[in-house]
Amino acid sequence: MKPPYGKPASALVPGARHNGIGMTSARTRERLVQRLRDQGIVNPEVLEQIRNVPRHLFVDEALATRAYEDTALPIGLGQTISQPYVVARMTEALIEGTAPRKVLEIGTGCGYQTAVLSPFVKFLYSIERISALLERARIRVKELNLRNVHLRHGDGFQGWAAHAPYDGILMAAAPLAIPEVLLTQLGPGGRLIAPVGPEGRQQLLRITRRGDDFHKETLGLVSFVPLLKGLG
């Protein structure tokens, strides 16, 4: 499917700063995309987003040469930018079939997952508990002209009730169990994608709401920072 709502990343990020050189070049990005194909990512538009979103802008300059490796990288404050495979897998799982119109993201972090997901949804509401990370994400969202993204400093355990119900919820940090309040904010037919479990034993789940029932699928093993309560 083509991204139904936003412009593709290639239309948002002109210029050498975004296109990259050397280890952030188009050739390096293409190797990453081929690796994700080999690992089972099949949605061509998700792969196109991974190719075109300038991941090197979301990490410290000292790590820019590693930006297109398929690995998580530190972004400071005890947080990481997610592995590109996991970002692609979560995005693919969320938009499979009919793309969700309104999505809540828990854990904005540096904003990389936000940027990849943005063109596939009409409204993207994203919550980050660490204010310093949120301010960095605001800069990137503005720079990439992601006009459908709305950011908030808040506690992900509480969700964002003002804009509920959501067609999709994506969690970029791992709770031990899905907070009940997030399930109540998921609309009929909505999907929630989340890593769940203690560190070292997390599973990526897709939970689909069918009336008052919630259907759970396991999508594989993952490793995320834990979801924490409160503000930082």
Tally of helical segments: 8
Structural class: alpha/beta
Unreliable runs: 10-16
Largest sheet: 7 strands, mixed
**Rg, Å, rounded:** 16 Å
Strand order of the largest sheet: 5-4-3-6-7-8-9
Strand content: 25-35%
SSE string, helices as H and strands as E? HHHHEEHEHEHEEHEEE
Helical residue percent?
25-40%
Global outline: globular
Mean pLDDT: 91
Please give the alpha-carbon distance between the first and last residues.
Answer: 38 Å
What does this structure look like?
By secondary structure, this protein is α/β, with parallel strands linked by helices. About 30% of the residues lie in helices and about 25% in strands. It has helices at about 10, 15-20, 25-40, 45-50, 85-95, 110-115, 130-145, 180-185, and strands at about 75, 80, 100-105, 125-130, 150-155, 165-170, 185-195, 200-210, 215-220. The strands form two sheets. Strands 5-4-3-6-7-8-9 form a seven-stranded mixed β-sheet. It is globular, with a radius of gyration of 16 Å. Residues about 10-15 have low confidence and may be disordered.
